[in-house]
Design goal:
Helix content is about 20%, strand content about 15%. By secondary structure, the chain is an alpha/beta fold. An eight-stranded parallel beta barrel has the order 2-3-4-8-9-10-11-12, surrounded by four helices. Strands 1-13-14-15-20-17 form a six-stranded antiparallel beta sheet, covered by helices on one side. Helix 3 links the parallel strand 3 and strand 4. InterPro entries: GH, GH13_cat_dom, O16G_dom_2, TAT_signal.
């Protein structure tokens, strides 16, 4: 028998011997956020618009397609839609190189379609989040084109010829000017993405191009980003997922000035648009939430251990793998530390996959029998769950696809949504050669239609868990969690009532749970778990949610 190695509690509820107890509000006070507390009850559904639904036969998804498929989100139980960029762009980075912050690229529709999307989603109880790419623009953005013509324009980070090495290579991250302005500019990710100038936290004599955060250019840019936010919030979006949020102010130890910048934006938004939320692509909730964000994603990179909490679950010798060589301890420890830091001021957000991670639960290694245990964790742990389109049916990451619009290897999980067994899987009426990316070629690829017809499908399982989470606050973000074992099987008590145990490895595992209610527990979901006294025996790929009563 595997005896519990770790037992502790976070959140509300009675303390236990040796337990760590954190109550809402006990940690450092959060920045004022208006009334955006709805995020704690959110289930995010991420749509990569190019690949979700095409309604005009172009082979590329559009806003009308998202509207057409909102009933799927409502039926599933997702209540918040996050849409990747739909703005004008030359698409050197799939739309994250923005040429106009306040318009819509014609391939997706127009601004009226945004209004229709927001209204249609609202009728179904769904909020809409847009991406805010505040750190860089496209090199085709009017701001940058103007800076190429005007040497006094400091909206971007420019180094003049006399500030650059004489005959040597350019400084790291700098790109030679493509236009009449001499010198070089600093990029963010691609050379086509010039970094917007928010200043440097520190000056340095070897880099005389640095400007302080209160210089004219940085001040102008902060005001401009407020205008961008204001534009979309007035159209009814409920907030933003903020791309590369930690990178705005350069050379910023501890992200002090970056935090001040976001806190300023958050305070403004709270006054002007109460109820709107900011979610960061940061990867370190203990830093980003006190900086003003309502929530932060765990990511494959950044934050503690450069993304270790996420990677330890899903990718690098992952806990969720049949071999059973991983551990949930890395994640649990990082989440515990973050939760103690942010208290009730914000939320941690957990995806399995996203448009950047180039993976899915169906990654070519994990099989379908492994998926339910992973979903049991995702939808019962007190993080805000995020569903990347297609994960709910077990869509595959498809290797060997061509690079598209700067995908740089990330195209594996950007394939068209698989709605049915009709032409192009119901995604588009275009011919296969015109699709944004090829379909998954597997003839047995999962579809929404087939899984809707099968009550034992993954899709119905996910829907049941979402309904359970909605029905019982004990399974949400605000209730306590007591961890009995962070090995195999991962076993924890939610809200003092629901015992969750899951074993993602192929070999069985046991755990002791010292709770007298166990013998009378009512199974809510159960795949082969046996109760013998205070011991749970969980088969390979098994899981259970047991109601112990109040």
């Amino acid at each position: 028998m595997v005896v519990s190695r770790r037992s502790f509690m976070l959140g509300t509820g009675a303390a236990i011997a040796g337990a760590a107890l954190v109550r809402p509000g006990q940690a450092a006070a959060a920045t004022a956020r208006g009334s955006g507390s709805w995020l704690g009850d959110a289930v995010l559904y991420q749509v990569y618009p190019q690949s979700f639904q095409d309604t005009d036969g172009s082979g590329i998804g559009d806003l009308s397609g998202i509207i057409e498929r909102l009933d799927h989100l409502q039926w599933l139980g997702a209540n918040t839609l996050w849409v990747n960029p739909v703005f004008p762009s030359p698409f050197t980075d799939a739309g994250y190189d923005i040429a106009d912050y306040t318009s819509v690229h014609p391939r997706y529709g127009d601004e009226e379609d945004v209004s229709r999307l927001v209204a249609a989603a609202r009728r179904r109880g769904i909020r809409v989040l847009f991406d805010l790419v505040a750190g860089h623009t496209s090199d085709q953005h009017p701001w940058f084109l103007e800076s190429l013509r005007d040497t006094t324009n400091d909206r971007y980070i420019w180094a003049t010829p006399d500030q650059l090495p004489d005959g040597g290579p350019l400084p790291d991250q700098f790109v030679a000017s493509p236009g009449p302005r001499p010198g070089a500019f600093r990029m963010n990710y691609y050379a086509t993405q010039p970094a917007i100038n928010y200043g440097y936290a520190r000056m340095h004599p070897d880099e005389p191009w640095r400007e302080p955060v209160d210089a004219e250019g940085p001040r102008t840019n902060r005001a401009a980003i407020r205008d961008v936010m204001d534009h979309w919030l007035k159209l009814g979006v409920s907030g933003f997922r903020c791309d590369m949020a930690a990178t705005l102010v350069k050379d910023d130890p501890g992200w002090v000035e970056t935090g001040r910048l976001w806190s300023e934006l958050r305070s403004w938004m709270g006054r002007r648009h109460p109820g709107a939320v900011l979610i960061s692509e940061w990867g370190d909730p203990a830093t980003s939430v006190p900086a003003g964000f309502d929530g932060d994603f765990y990511l494959p990179v950044n934050g503690p251990g450069d993304g270790a909490p996420w990677r330890s679950l899903w990718r690098d010798q992952p806990y969720f793998a049949a071999a059973g060589t991983g551990t949930a301890k890395t994640f649990v420890d990082a989440w515990t530390t973050a939760t103690r830091s942010i208290g009730s001021g914000g939320h941690t957000i957990m995806p399995i996959a996203n448009h950047d991670s180039a993976t899915r639960l169906a990654d070519g290694v994990r099989g379908p029998e492994e998926f339910p245990a992973a979903w049991t964790f995702l939808l019962t742990w007190p993080t805000v769950p995020t569903i990347y389109y297609g994960e709910e049916i077990g869509m595959r990451a498809v290797a060997g696809l061509p690079e598209v619009e700067g995908s740089a290897g990330r195209q594996e999980n950007r394939t068209p949504m698989q709605w049915d067994n009709g032409p192009q899987a119901g995604f588009s009426t275009a011919s296969p050669d015109r699709l944004y990316l090829p379909l998954d070629p597997d003839p047995d690829r999962p579809t929404v239609a087939a899984q809707r017809r099968d009550p034992d499908s993954l899709l119905h399982f996910v829907r049941r868990l979402l309904a359970l989470r909605k029905r019982h606050p004990e399974l949400g973000t605000q209730a306590s969690v007591r961890v009995f074992d962070d090995g195999y099987p991962l076993t924890y008590l939610r809200g003092g009532r629901f015992l969750v145990t899951l074993n993602p490895r192929r070999d069985p595992a046991t755990v002791a749970v010292p709770d007298s209610r166990l013998s009378h527990a009512r199974p809510v979901e159960n795949r082969g778990v046996r109760v013998d006294g205070d011991t749970l025996t969980v088969p390979g790929f098994g899981y259970a949610i047991l109601d112990l009563g109040r």
